Amino acid sequence: MEKPTLKLNKQIPDVSYHSDELKMILVLGESVRADHLSINGYNRPTTPKLKQQSGLISFPNVYTEHTYTAVSLPQILTNQGQVKIDSEYYSIYDILDEANYKTYWVGNQTLEKSYAPIVKTNDSIHLIDAFKSVFSFDKLRDESLIPVASNILKEDRRSVISLHMIGSHWWYEDRYSNKEKKFNPVIDSKYIPSLTSEQLINSYDNTLLYLDKFISKLIGVLENQETPTVLVYISDHGEQLGEEGKWLHAQSGEAAKNPAYLIWFSESYTKKYPKVVTNIKEATKINSTTDRVFYDILTLLGISFEKIKQ
Ligand SMILES: [Zn+2]
C-alpha cells in the first residue's frame, strides 16, 4: 500500500489565545466505528458507562475518506483536509506550542513513517510497548497508558497529552480482558474465512466494552484535576464488519469511513467556557468530516490562528 509522505510547514502563523490553566487528553482511537457504540444508538450495550457519563457528547455523523492509520492520523493531526490542497501542513502540536501548551505523546503503537514527523513535534514522546507492532500477539493493553498520563497531568498547568491506542485493531481477542468477554461466542482462529460473522462481531463489540471502561477511567482521572479539563476521543477510521463481504479496514468500504468521535468536558470547564460547550454540542447534530477535529481542539483550548497565505 502506498504510504504518503508528509511535509510539515514550520512557518507557524501568529496565534491568539488565552493563558488560562487548562489540560486536555486527546485520545487517538483505532478502528472504532461510530454505529457500534450504544451511545450512538447501537442495539447492544457496548458503552454502558459512557451512556451514564455527564459532560460527554458524541458526534455520530463524522466521516473520513482515510481508512488506515498511516493516512488518517496525518490528516487528523494537521490542517490537511479530506482533499489534499497544499503540499505542506501545520502540525497541531506546533500550533499548541505557539500557544504555550506543553505537549506529550504517549503511544501504544510503533510510530509509522507517515506520522512520525508529526509525533516528533511534541515536547515529549513516550512509547509504552515500542518494540511490538500492532500485529504482535502479546501486546500490552491500552490501560497501561493511563498511569503514564496520570503522572504527566501532575507536571504542568497547561498541557495536552495525546494517547495513541491499539484500540480495536485486529486481532480483537488481545484487546480486552475476560471482564469484557460479554458477547459470545468469540473468534477462535486468526483465519477469517473459518469464522462466523457472529463470532467476529461479538469479539469486536467486546473491544468496545474495553474502550468504554478505558475512557471512563480517564475521565475519572481528569475529574480529579484542580484545573478545568477536557477529553477528546477520535478513532482514526472505522472497520468493515462483513458489509460488502469485507472485514477489517484499509480497503474501500463505507463502514470504515464513520469513526467514533466523543468529547467530554469537566464541570469546571463547562462553567468557565459555556459558549464553547454550547457551540460544540450544536455541531453534533450535523454531518461533518474528521477535518473538524484539528479546529475543535484549538477552539476547546481557546486558540485561533489565521493561515498564512502562501
Ligand atoms: Zn488505524
Give an overview of the whole structure.
- It is a single chain.
- By secondary structure, this protein is α/β, with parallel strands linked by helices.
- The protein has a single domain, classed as Alkaline Phosphatase, subunit A, CATH 3.40.720.
- The protein contains nine helices and 15 strands.
- The protein has a seven-stranded mixed beta sheet with strand order 4-13-10-3-9-7-8, sandwiched between helices. Strands 1-6 form a two-stranded parallel ribbon. A two-stranded antiparallel ribbon has the order 2-15.
- The longest helix has 27 residues, at 197-223.
- Bound molecules: zinc ion (ZN).
- Zinc ion binds next to loops.
In short:
The protein has 310 residues and is an alpha/beta fold. The protein is built from nine helices and 15 strands.
SSE order, one letter for each helix or strand: EEEHEEHEHEHEHEHEEEEHHEHE
Distance separating the two termini: 31 Å
Mean pLDDT: 93
Q: Are any ligands bound, and if so which? A: zinc ion
CATH first level: which class? Alpha Beta
CATH topology-level name: Alkaline Phosphatase, subunit A
Low confidence ranges: none
Count of β-strands = 15
By DSSP (H or I, 4+ residues per run), the number of helices equals 9
**So what's the oligomer here?**
single chain
